[in-house]
Write a structure and sequence with these properties.
42% of the residues lie in helices and 20% in strands. The protein has twelve helices and seven strands. β2, α5 and β3 form a beta-alpha-beta unit. The radius of gyration is 17 Å and the shape is globular.
């Protein structure tokens, strides 16, 4: 039986309501080098236009919002889970508990929308990409990073299965919270085997973004991969992580 869009949204809300403030500790990948990397990316996109405001899309514990604190005067963070938002202690951050397919922000209001490891949680992308386009000002930028591309998973499927058996994130969550089931985890990680980044880029262009660039890298997975591969860009299928930058 196919998993519906509503089931995916419900699973994400339930999963992150349960995990709450424990998410960053259990995930264990928000390191100082990764913080510096995202800061570097946000600085780069902010220099391409105005840098007054940013929306952290599918913010979780507010990683992008935290990185952006000294780069943007106005910061907004949206997540479907009210309870994970409640755990963010940042009085200057405007927190929004809402579905990212229906962002409660007026048209042409935001300079940058940042999405970190967000797209693989979505069932489909048409509505959220349309909402991002709607709320961005002319010249605004959509920056997405750290979702695995499906072509990498297809090429290295056996290695990915071994990696996941060794670094078993699902097991950590199941052992930490008895109310989290395998089905709930898998449903919240709907595209855990990779997003179709080429189709997402085509969609962004179709919606109206004037420029869309995509690159693939390894940075931020572990200290070992950081040393091995650095921040270099690789052809599609030869690096797991997708970076998309789209200009309105």
């Amino acid at each position: 039986m196919k998993t519906s869009e509503e089931q995916v949204k419900k699973a994400n809300k339930e999963f992150y309501d349960i995990v709450g403030s424990s998410y960053e500790k259990l995930d264990g990948r928000r390191t100082e080098p990764l913080y510096a990397y995202v800061e570097e990316q946000l600085k780069e996109v902010s220099t391409q236009g105005d840098s007054e405001s940013i929306l952290d899309l599918g913010c979780g514990n507010g990683f992008v919002s935290q990185v952006a604190a000294h780069l943007f005067k106005q910061r907004y963070a949206i997540d479907i889970s009210y309870l994970i938002l409640r755990g963010i202690e940042d009085p200057q951050l405007k927190k929004i508990a809402a579905d990212s397919d229906f962002i409660p922000i007026q048209d042409n209001q935001i300079d940058v929308v940042g999405a970190f490891a967000f797209l693989h949680h979505c069932h489909s992308f048409e509505r959220v990409c349309g909402e991002v386009y709607r709320i961005l000002k002319a010249g605004g930028i959509f920056y997405s990073d750290h979702d695995m591309d499906i072509s990498f998973y297809s090429r290295f499927k056996i290695m990915m299965k071994i990696y996941r058996k060794v670094h078993n994130a699902k097991k950590r969550y199941l052992e930490s919270f008895e109310t989290i089931s395998e089905n709930l985890y898998d449903c919240s990680e709907f595209h855990q085997n990779g997003i179709q980044s080429d189709l997402i880029c085509s969609l962004l262009k179709k919606i109206g973004f004037s420029e869309v660039s995509i690159s693939f890298h390894w940075f931020g997975l572990s200290s070992f991969s950081d040393r091995m591969f650095g921040k270099k860009k690789y052809p599609r299928g030869w690096a797991p992580l997708t970076r998309i930058v789209a200009l309105k």
